[in-house]
Amino acid sequence: MRVAFLALMGLQLAASPGAGEERRSYVVTGDAIMQPLVGGKGDPARGAALIADRQRSLCTLCHSGPFPDAHLHGTLAPDLTGVGARLSEGQIRLRVVDMKRLVPNTIMPSYYRVADEQGRRVATVWRSKPILGGADIEDIVAYLKTLKG
Question: Please, what is the average pLDDT of the chain?
Fold first, then answer.
């Protein structure tokens, strides 16, 4: 589904950066993943760069916010301005890891859940691999948490 959606959008994707990283299990508590996916906190500067990277994260394809190139921001999903004030770190983490757990029909990709587990057809290059690795997700969470208003 995610590869088909991205291909439909005419995007070329690099190999998954999470491909070489061992994917850790996580525990969902309510609407959050309380524990980081990797040891330590993410880097907000790297997270900001990932959010703006339309080849890897694709965030700005659908979301707008205080990011570079405002004319390229999407309007399909909520504006992320102030998300750090509205949601906890754990809530942000779950939304990036697997928004489909909260909103099954969302168009937002599950960035850490492996598509094979969803029983859908997945291109060979993406089989058994998340879109982003745990460190990338923690960087995005760290950056989004800084967006207070």
Answer: 84
